[in-house]
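fyi for ur records
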Amino acid sequence: MRQIRSATVIAATAVLLLAGSVAADTPSTFSGSASDADTPTPQAWGQGDFPASPKNMAGTPQRPSPERFVHYVYDSTQTKLTRQDMTQNTYNPKMAYGGASIANREDGMEKSGWDMTYVMTEKTSTAKNTQKAFYAAGYAEGYETQHRIYQNFINIFPPTWTDKYTGSWAAQCNQTCEWFIRSQFDWMSATADDKVKELAKQTGTYEYKFWSAVQDSVSQINGMIDGYMDAAGVKASTSAANETLTWAQIYGVGFDFELGDVQHWVHGYLASHNEKQLVYGTNKLADHPDLTVKYPPVDPETGKTVPMPPKRMVDRNAHCSALIKATDSELFMAHDTWSGYNTMLRQYKTYEFGDQIPAISMSSYPGTLHSGDDWYMMSNGISSQETTNANNNNASKGTLTPRTVPEFVRVMVANRVAVDGSSWTQLFGMYNSGTYNNQYMVVDHNKFDPSKPKMADKIGTGTLWIVEQMPGKMAAADVSAFLVNQTYWASYNIPFLLNNDMKYPELVKSFGSFFDYNKYARPEIFKANQGGINSVHDMKMMMRWNDYQTSKYSTIPKDNCKLATDGANPDEGVCDPAQNPQLVIANRADLAATYTLKNGGPIWGFLTQNPFGAIDSKIVSSNGIKQMMGHMISGPTSTPYAAPYIEPFNWDGSAFKNDPRRNGMPNQYDFDFCTSAELVSDNICDNKLDYLTDYNPRYAGKFAPYQGFMLGVLIAVLGLAVYIFISKKNNPDDYNPMTGQ
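which gave:
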């Protein structure tokens, strides 16, 4: 990224909000630092009155046909939901006692790589019925998508696998793990009820807004779990299929993104307590006022340090590429999810819950009540996304406590309640769990004015906020000034505000530029190519970029390769092969070679072949969000029509054809970009990589280097044709069509 012009600009525009006591320094490439700003007290998150709602845009999502909806209606007791199967050709049937409607299609995976789930509640959401509406919405989704949730569960937690970090639920989440997540849910639920009652006369405060929205989320979670259990119970009683799951297992599908951080705490707790498990229902949270674990943990009997968990657990959730780009006429937000291929069972999901909450559309998964990628667009003109930062501050990992609100709940609270980027970060920062630690980017498209001639006038203060999280600390800043000066903001799993706090300088010393905020492959690729982005098509090409075979950016860093050795000649180490398909924007780890320390250096564990990659791309623009119109593609990137010929991912044709974690997925991922309107339409989007046939010549040598090759072929063919024509004209009897002579 290029330097900001002056430290004064950042000091004037960035506000750093910390839940700790010390402001974080930003990477040294920038002349300004968010730490130049005033630092409020540690209690600054969510204090005082909530800001008044500005006159934001009010986009309406594209809805499925009315006849596709199934309605879940409360009876007169308002305790039981009854399913009405397409009996009324309307979005909102008369519901005397409340309820919800859902349109769900599970034939999209084979056609577009996306199932579609659209959930609505009644138009008016008052304080009296909102919890029942959220419960009904959750119940409808749990019941109607039960089988897909089960498939997703066994893809994430394969029942026959015993590996502690990729295996079954029992292998990944032991008794203490279940105790933690269930105790956290119980604390959150009880605290929400207490706070809403306590603050009944202070409804205009952050605290009330936050806990009222948490209360709604708790109702939705309970509804989904009950809906799943009822549907699975009916199936078990009427067929041989047994897809029953426990409360914790259903909840764990959505909580999985945070599970790796909880595993760290569990490891430390058990090591410090003679491996004595905490058991839910027996050990009360109230009996454990201090659950802090010293890291690295110490065995109480021997006094010796207990080894840390394997490095792969540290990197469990370090994934995603993201880009914000301003042009003369558009403000784009784009995101690639980097994840295991066992998570490619996808849903494009929309929640339209009453008229007091913005509608939310997102890329998601069965059984997940948030995005998880994360990528969201809201009908009030705000969009949000994140990339995940692995927390390398070991001391902070022992500070986790169940007396917090999970990340997936806080992000949905912020999406539903926030009126701008500042209030979004405030809400998200409240009751930080320290799990699933991300850099969130919040774009307020309402503050972008393309009619203004200068970029400084187009991008208003508050257009782009970022917020970063780690255990015990949050940091947020208005970085609109960076967007003005650079016209882009890129994010790639390396923290900006909490870079020092999360110990990334130490990683650079140990592993080289792979962890450097400015020198790693993706920041350089974004910087080199973002200037050519002027349209949605351009952004598609940027986010699917993988030219690893020839790109200089995809060469494994030399400072790492010097250590690629068995130890005999540490100064003569080389990486072989030197080009890697993960040093790109759209990762294809399935195409990588098999690396060890000897041929891959210290970062070989990341570089080596895995069923892992960029499993999608999503794009929204300032014009598109007015109609809640996004563009998304499912599956790993491919360029099958031209050199360098990266074929679409095919399970049976890959090295992972025997991987059992592919339930419900198509065999081959050769889908095209779809619009959100196409995904909810009756015809569904079923194009096959059409966007790749419309290359933009601007990107020769950049997005599509093979264009130069194809142009050369075309010129050669035309030249040959002219030569043949002239030869035939001059020597018609001697012309040989096979030789051209």
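The two ends are 55 Å apart (CA to CA). thats all i got for now
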